[in-house]
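2024-03-11 09:14:02 INFO worker-7 job=invfold-0412 stage=load source=structure_tokens
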């Protein structure tokens, strides 16, 4: 058997020569994972309040020379033709390996899916389940003594069987897509083949802890840590798109909007963040138009931008509920009262004039104080949106404008994640209003009620 150093260098060389077949098996798109309301609840909790909830992550360094890898290589005799090479040059040795042996080496040492397939087969065999034919990429497992692996890594199998395996578990997982285990859902954000690191996230600690114990028992990870993430902002929102896509039917109830979101997700996966943000802006425009038409019960012109729709909504609300501006009291009446005073005027009459004079001065100060505030302070718009939703709409508008106008503002994954967060908050708020508001009431009564509710601190 090669030394650990030589094996690690050979794996690296083989990786560079590989045809770069997908590391993680793509799930069947015709049968996507469907989450029940109970399964989706922890994910929705994070999506609606990431700062309060955070998420859990497992980070570790992948060991290509792990006890499991060497055990399997010995069983398969994968490297028997190159172990005695007089001169060990990793790239040359990797080239001498037949292609199927080279891919077998990578499957055994550097593929997460291979471990899943292997232990799923062991669990099925132990449970007396008839094994189905494996795909070509996993055919090497048919040459493995499964019981020998189970005995050699008994602790790992116990963890897998108790906390990970369930009837119907998928063998392959897709990077940045939800993967169901017995302990809950996880997302493999970074598979080991890309950087030699393993990064998995989940909304519940139990899901992460089970995988940590499993991989450590196999010896395939080093320095594994489990921690809860609340900051920095870029890290907190890194899995946001992935989690939204996994529970989309529980967030966006409208099928047409869900289709548009699918396009935004495709742009995100292609790292085309400008078009991703623009597409999310289209969904926001649609929902703001729904808010406008439902509250005001009147049509809105087509083709309006997000900002134009928002401004028109606020203007129409101002038209429906005009603010009464305070009038400036005319002092002429006071001159008339003073003119009527003479030397015989009693004190009570004089007091009445003084009261009016003091009252006029006080009202004048209040009037000019309000006018000064109007000139120096930003106007407070009357809006049906609570402050948190209003702030998110304004942020969404900022990123949408930056994407649509090709501004110099750099748009990356974090800006796309923030745009999606703001959109989710708007959509969720509106869908709540649709079921909580008594729509049989007059529109003025409904709008006035929502204006009042928006001012109430949450």
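2024-03-11 09:14:09 INFO worker-7 stage=emit residues=458
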């Amino acid at each position: 058997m090669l030394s650990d150093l030589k094996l690690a260098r050979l794996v690296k060389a083989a990786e560079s020569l590989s045809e770069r077949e997908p590391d993680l098996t793509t799930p069947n798109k015709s049968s996507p994972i469907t989450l029940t309301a109970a399964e989706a609840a922890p994910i929705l909790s994070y999506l609606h309040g990431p700062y309060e909830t955070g998420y859990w992550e497992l980070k570790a360094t992948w060991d290509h020379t792990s006890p499991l890898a060497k055990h399997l290589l010995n069983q398969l005799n994968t490297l028997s033709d190159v172990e005695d090479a007089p001169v060990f040059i990793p790239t040359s040795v990797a080239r001498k390996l037949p292609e199927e042996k080279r891919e077998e080496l990578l499957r055994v040492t550097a593929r997460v899916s291979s471990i899943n397939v292997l232990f799923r087969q062991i669990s099925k065999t132990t449970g007396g389940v008839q094994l189905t034919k494996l795909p070509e990429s996993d055919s090497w497992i048919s040459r493995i003594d499964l019981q020998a692996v189970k005995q050699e890594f008994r602790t790992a199998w116990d963890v897998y069987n108790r906390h990970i395996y369930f009837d119907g578990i998928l063998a392959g997982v897709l990077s940045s897509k939800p993967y169901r285990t017995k302990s809950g859902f996880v997302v493999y954000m970074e598979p080991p083949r890309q950087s030699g690191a393993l990064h998995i996230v989940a909304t519940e600690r139990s899901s992460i802890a089970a995988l940590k114990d499993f991989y450590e028992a196999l010896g395939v990870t080093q320095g594994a840590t489990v921690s809860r993430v609340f900051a920095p902002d870029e890290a907190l929102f890194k899995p946001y798109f992935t989690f939204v896509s996994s529970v989309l039917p529980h967030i966006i109830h409208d099928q047409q909007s869900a289709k548009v979101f699918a396009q935004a997700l495709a742009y995100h996966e292609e790292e085309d963040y400008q078009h991703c943000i623009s597409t999310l802006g289209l969904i926001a425009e649609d929902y703001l138009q729904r808010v406008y038409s439902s509250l005001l019960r009147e049509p809105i012109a087509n083709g309006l931008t997000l900002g134009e729709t928002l401004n028109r909504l606020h203007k129409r609300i101002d038209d429906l509920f005009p603010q009464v501006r305070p009038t400036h009291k005319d002092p002429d009446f006071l001159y008339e009262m003073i003119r009527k005073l003479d030397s015989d005027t009693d004190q009570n009459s004089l007091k009445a004039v003084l009261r009016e004079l003091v009252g006029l001065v006080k009202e004048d100060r209040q009037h000019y104080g309000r006018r000064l505030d109007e000139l120096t302070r930003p106007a407070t718009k009357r809006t049906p949106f609570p402050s948190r939703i209003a702030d998110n709409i304004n942020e969404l508008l900022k990123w949408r404008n930056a994407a649509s106008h090709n501004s110099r503002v750099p748009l990356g994954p974090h800006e796309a994640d923030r745009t999606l967060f703001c959109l989710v908050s708007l959509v969720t708020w509106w869908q709540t209003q649709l079921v909580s508001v008594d729509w049989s009431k007059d529109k003025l009564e409904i709008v006035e009620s929502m204006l009042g509710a928006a001012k109430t601190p949450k």
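2024-03-11 09:14:09 INFO worker-7 stage=report msg="The longest strand covers residues 221-229."
2024-03-11 09:14:10 INFO worker-7 job finished
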